[in-house]
Design goal:
The chain is of the alpha/beta class. Helices cover 41% and strands 18% of the residues. The chain is built from nine helices and eleven strands. It has helices at 7-13, 18-32, 48-76, 89-101, 113-121, 184-197, 210-218, 228-233, 259-275; strands spanning 37-38, 45-46, 79-84, 106-111, 127-131, 139-147, 175-177, 204-206, 223-226, 237-239, 246-254. Strand 7 (175-177), helix 6 and strand 8 form a beta-alpha-beta unit. Helix 1 crosses helix 2 (18-32). GO terms for molecular function: DNA-binding transcription factor activity; transcription cis-regulatory region binding. Residues 1-47 form the HTH lysR-type domain. This is DNA-binding transcriptional LysR family regulator.
């Protein structure tokens, strides 16, 4: 106001209505206990008290500008997030693009289940998509058995892999559990089914890597425990399991504040697509 010599011009420079500027100045004068402007003339001139306060006012304006700049820079700082290493580059790129549209910048760190939880625990990432027991997550992905040849039936029963007494073939058909599913609520339940239907211990095995497990399945009559989308990407035929219903269940956790909720809310469907989970109101097929 003092530099423009007019309340009207000063308000216009500050991009606010003149009455609003006048009310704010009046409130500031009341708060400080002295008049800042001499209103006895047409021009807006500073009083002696106003001139004494001018240097402090300029410092406050500069600090406010610096704070706004810092806030904008902070919004651009990527959130380092641990994600399942089964997420494809294409899906992560789409998730990143959607995040940017929502004002969230992400820095992905692909890792297996246990490592994702550890990265968050030791604050090496700000957030992590973690596997949780069925019914406790935001996203659920149904699991079934995938094979190179299309099974005749619409459902695969684990008991059909049982070795008959008269079968002398050294090759036993196996079910491969990939690293992403090497968690108790999936692995242990699969092992219990194996024992209940009489399969040999080696017929259900945890693979060291998804690539090697997929290679075993592509070159044999073995099965890969996998969700439908992943099976399709690998060129395999997917069927549900007859004896059991298994799901991957995921949620996002963050180290501090409301960051996890912000990611859940803004990126729910984008993360669902990345994980191979149903989006929107689709039934996730979850449950124990």
């Amino acid at each position: 106001m003092s530099e423009r010599g007019s309340f009207t011009l000063g308000a216009a420079a500050a991009r606010m209505p003149q009455p609003v500027a006048s009310r704010r100045i009046a409130a500031l004068e009341k708060h400080l206990g002295g008049r800042l402007f001499d209103r006895s003339t047409r021009r807006a001139t500073l009083t002696p008290f106003g001139r004494d306060m001018l240097a402090s006012a300029k410092r406050l304006v500069q600090l406010a500008d610096a704070m706004e700049h810092d806030a904008e820079q902070a919004k651009l700082t990527p959130v380092r997030i641990a994600v399942p290493d089964i997420c494809s580059t294409r899906d992560l790129a789409h998730l990143d693009a959607e995040a940017r549209r929502q004002g969230v910048h992400l820095d992905f760190h692909p890792a297996p289940p246990a490592e994702r939880a550890e990265l968050l625990r030791f604050q090496q990432v700000r957030a992590a998509i973690v596997e949780v027991p069925p019914g406790e997550g935001q996203w659920s992905v149904p699991l079934g058995l995938a094979s190179a040849a299309a099974p005749r039936a619409g459902t695969v029963y684990v008991e059909t892999l049982r070795v008959n007494r008269g079968d002398r073939s050294p090759r036993r058909r196996r079910i491969w559990i990939q690293p992403e599913d090497d968690v108790p609520h999936i692995r242990d339940r699969m092992m219990r089914i194996r024992d209940a239907v009489g399969l040999q211990p080696a017929q259900v095995a945890v693979a060291t890597a998804l690539t090697s497990a997929a290679a075993e399945v592509l070159g044999s009559a073995d099965f890969l425990l996998a969700p439908p989308k992943q099976a399709e990407e690998l060129g395999l035929h997917w069927r549900p399991i007859g004896e059991i219903r298994l799901v991957r269940s995921f949620d996002v956790f963050a180290g501090a504040g409301d960051e996890a909720e912000r990611i859940r809310t803004r990126l729910h469907n984008a993360i669902a697509r990345c994980l191979g989970a149903p989006t929107g109101d689709e039934d996730a097929g979850g449950g124990a």
